Amino acid sequence: MPPVRPPFSDVVDAVREQTALLLGLTISYSDEDWAAATSLTGWSRSHVAAHLAEGARGMVRVIRSLHSGIPRRMYDSEAANQRAIELGALADGLDLQIRLDTSASELQAELAALEDDDRLVSLRAGYQVPAHDIPLARLSEVVLHHVDMGCILEESDLVPGIAEALLAFHVERIGHRDDYPPLRLVADEGYIGSVGRPGATTGMHGPSADLLVWLTRGIETPRLYRAE
């Protein structure tokens, strides 16, 4: 079905709102909380925070390269990005909170200007999006890493249309990769999408937010059900 496209300003607002929710959670973290493991193998909450801060700075770098006319990716290399995350994860909780906040604010100030920009940008090797989809890519990062830190995503956490757009974004990105089984995703909001290799399709039904977390993180909520 056609891509789900909520108003651009709604996506930009959702980035701000979801970032505020994340910061509202992390401000209460003790040193032990920051050191706790996440659902991402080998990463603590400190690693996730460092990754989000580096990601925001990287997106700012990409956006500003559009203005300069000299294309740049988010990171000089994957190895450099991993080093930055490992070093960033060594910071104390207050420093991590400040980095999350300041990097997110810097990126937020750049997003509105992308509304009508359909130039392709390379965020990482093999990962290209139109510039106007950078806010959606950032929103995905914030929402899913909030889940990685232990947040339970509720239907009410995302305004109507945003969860559906995030689900469609990931369906399009995954496409028909051979490492995914054939899946048909049917959202309560009306979106229908398919991913995975050819074969007999398994159907998963439920709210877009739940389908998003199941598709990207393998978390199955009681609101999801399988059907042919």
From TrEMBL:
Residues 16-149 form the Mycothiol-dependent maleylpyruvate isomerase metal-binding domain. It comes from the Bacteria. It holds the Pfam family MDMPI_N. This is Maleylpyruvate isomerase family mycothiol-dependent enzyme. Transmembrane segments: none annotated. One of its GO terms (molecular function) is isomerase activity. InterPro entries: DinB/YfiT-like, Maleyloyr_isom, MDMPI_metal-binding. Keywords: Isomerase, Pyruvate. It comes from Tessaracoccus defluvii.
